[in-house]
Amino acid sequence: MTQNQQQVRRHTVSEKEDGQRIDNFLLKQMPGVPKSHVYRLLRSGQVRVNGGRIKPERKLVLGEEIRIPPVRLAEKGEAVRPPDKVLNSLRESIIFEDAHYVAINKPAGFAAHGGSGLPYGVIEAMRALNKYDFIELCHRLDRDTSGVLLLAKSRPALLRAQKALKEGTTEKRYFTLLVGKWRGEDRDVDSALISNRLESGERMVEIDDDGKPAKSRFSPKAKYRDATLCEVQIFSGRTHQIRVHALSLGHPVAGDTKYGDRESQKFIKELGLKRMFLHSHLFALPKDGEFPKLLLSAAMGDELRAVLDKLNRQGPVGPAPRARERPRKPR
């Protein structure tokens, strides 16, 4: 692979960067470099501030000089080929394919696309299979969310899906485990959301009347002593929508370290949950011209089922869903 060798850089901390963590600063300075490599540079002492070694959590001070070591990057526009292990895992995750679309049960931890320090995601890996003349994402899932992810194999198929998403005629349902005891039955959250980026580059979403419209319906499926399994239907597709709407109800998503507080999540961690409990189990497109109705479902992974099994043994208030739910017809 053709590589581009950068030179050592010297950077003076500006007012905008004053107080920023060195690891977050480097991640913004080195787009396309894996996060693990950035931390390796810090641990090995190749990154220095005013000539001294620093830890990842060290905060920068106005006027300090940062030594940024050379890193080897792919040439601009050159695709980074994912490892064979990743490609094989992706092949095994395919749950549907026809002449128009291919759908996968995306594993948690796998981004929909590369960027922000990630050399590749699902779309780059699918292209690396060299199987499709045309392949594009129809929609996205958060990196930490598992479940149905649809890709189009032609431009007309892509436009059909994008039209349905824009018009709100798709059906999207998720399973999520929420922290706390649920009172009553279904609840709708119709709260606009606005997305902000912190100085570190991290994206945070908040409820704001000036934001984009967003609606979610939470339906309890199993109630446990300190948690509730809900099916969530979303009528829009905003960033972190379910996570922020759940938090507004006082029930953060289990395993969500961004929006959920550490204390309330403690008992969930003790159950062995090492990821966010959010899974897209159903995605449907309505019939449109030559395209027939498309109904896709994906079973929860073993790691999520294991958490539900442990909660059941503690004494649930209601039954947990079966491993494979019967998908509902799109409205």
In short:
The chain has about 325 residues and is α+β, with helices and mostly antiparallel strands. Helices cover about 20% and strands about 25% of the residues.
Distance between the termini: 48 Å
- The count of β-strands is 18
Low-confidence stretches: 1-5, 318-331
The H/E string reads: EEHHEEEEHEEHEEHEEEEEEHHEEH
**Largest beta-sheet characterization:** 10 strands, mixed
Q: Structural class of the helix and strand makeup?
A: alpha+beta
The helix count comes to 8
What's the helical proportion of residues?
10-25%
Radius of gyration: 22 Å
Shape designation: globular
**Mean of all residue-level pLDDT scores:** 86
User: In percent terms, what proportion of residues is strand?
Assistant: 25-35%
Description:
- The protein has helices at residues 22-29, 35-43, 84-92, 122-128, 155-167, 241-248, 266-270, 302-314, and strands at 3-5, 9-12, 48-49, 52-53, 65-68, 72-74, 94-97, 101-106, 136-137, 146-152, 171-179, 187-190, 193-197, 203-207, 215-223, 227-234, 278-285, 294-297.
- By secondary structure, it is of the alpha+beta class.
- The strands form 4 sheets. Strands 7, 8, 9, 10, 11, 12, 15, 16, 17 and 18 form a 10-stranded mixed sheet that branches. Strands 2-5-3-4 form a 4-stranded antiparallel sheet, with no helix packed on it.
- β15 and β16 (227-234) form a beta hairpin.
- Residues 1-5 and 318-331 have low confidence and may be disordered.
Tag the structure with descriptive keywords.
alpha+beta; 331 residues; 10-stranded mixed sheet
